[in-house]
Amino acid sequence: MSFLDIRLPLKLSFGSSSGLQFQTDVVTYGNGKTYRNSRWNYQRASMDLSYIVKDRADAVEVYNFFQLAAGRFNSFRVKDNFDYTSNDDGASSPTATDQSIGTGDGSETDFQLTKTYTNGAYSYTRNITKPVSGTVLVAVAGTPTTNFTIDTSTGIISLGFVPTLGQAITAGYEFDIEMRFDQDELEDIEYILLRQDSSKDYFTFPSLRVIEEL
Question: Which residues of the chain have pLDDT under 50?
């Protein structure tokens, strides 16, 4: 298996339904109380891409991409249209101070991109491993800098200098999710000829689901 550094065609993610998964074991004791254990350290995003494509070319693109991915075997990039930027609302343009990603200690130059989701006193921090090339912005102690490189396959920023002790490292970016198909079969492709005009042909893919690769 391998990661294909290509993005699922945006036409497939537009109009899709997306959600989140966690894996929790729940044990119920005789007195009715429960013990809960979370198996996963991070959430898993999922999407249902089942939809009606516009024409034959659209259907062929879906068909070919599924073959390229070899069903569940290879992972790829997917844009989640609900949450794809470092901004708190998940969609507004990023700025260099959107997310705190570390603090200078006088020696470290590498920092992992993260996004923190907050509600009141509670927060959850997610590693961002597939930033979009050309969108990453960085600031040190509130001052934007271009003296850095970004590994778009891991989300690790490497500064070209050493931040001093206590300096805040922040970043903004757009990002994709590494996902894979959750099926090995592309079944029940339905073809509906609405008119003799081939531009009015419709194809449906009743089942087409992708999940995040953890």
Answer: 194-196
